[in-house]
Amino acid sequence: MKFVHIAAISIWCAGLVCLPGLYVQRVNAEKDALHRLQALVRFIYVGLMSPSAFAAIASGTALIFMRQTFQPWFGYKLLFVGILATLHILTGLVIIRLFNEGQVYPVWRFIAVTVFTLLVVCAVLFLVLAKPELPDFLSKDLFRPGGLGQLIPFPRS
């Protein structure tokens, strides 16, 4: 299960990092090259990245229950995986608009998105490999029966 998870995360993150480099090529593409570029970008997103993202999240969820990882670092890791999922959605929105007439992907955006994605991927790797001692912002009382009711008072009838 861990092998599936690591392989899926690798493919997913590789796609998130490489697609902005393909977007930049849209500016120089002529009609036939533009159609090939669009087909390649959509194949990477729909055929490789999206199934890998699903497999990564599904296998990661299974690993949570198999390994019973309930440490503060793991919560931070899930935060960064959520950022990766958000980047995945935003990537899909870029693909939808990018190949319309007159659209381009600026080089500054390519650099910014690629650097940000690499930082998020490195943060996930650091948290998983180092398993640092991090502060736990959740109260221990939250996990006992009725703990959520004390944190958020619900009206009782």
TrEMBL record:
Q: Which domain of life is it from?
A: Bacteria
Q: How is the cofactor bound?
A: Binds 1 heme b (iron(II)-protoporphyrin IX) group per subunit.
Q: Name one GO molecular function term.
A: metal ion binding
- InterPro entries associated with the record: HemJ-like
TM stretches of this protein: 39-66, 78-99, 105-130
UniProt enzyme class: oxidoreductase
Single GO BP term: protoporphyrinogen IX biosynthetic process
Q: What is its EC number?
A: 1.3.99.-
Q: Which GO terms describe its cellular component?
A: plasma membrane
Q: Which reaction does it catalyse?
A: protoporphyrinogen IX + 3 A = protoporphyrin IX + 3 AH2
What is its cofactor? Answer: heme b
Has keyword Kinase?
A: no
Q: According to its UniProt record, in which pathway does this protein act?
A: Porphyrin-containing compound metabolism; protoporphyrin-IX biosynthesis; protoporphyrin-IX from protoporphyrinogen-IX: step 1/1
Key words, A-Z: Cell membrane, Heme, Iron, Membrane, Metal-binding, Transmembrane, Transmembrane helix
Q: Which Pfam families match?
A: UPF0093 (PF03653)
Q: Which family does it belong to?
A: Belongs to the HemJ family.
What does it do?
Answer: Catalyzes the oxidation of protoporphyrinogen IX to protoporphyrin IX.
Indicate what this protein is called per its UniProt record: Protoporphyrinogen IX oxidase
The record lists the organism as Aureimonas fodinaquatilis
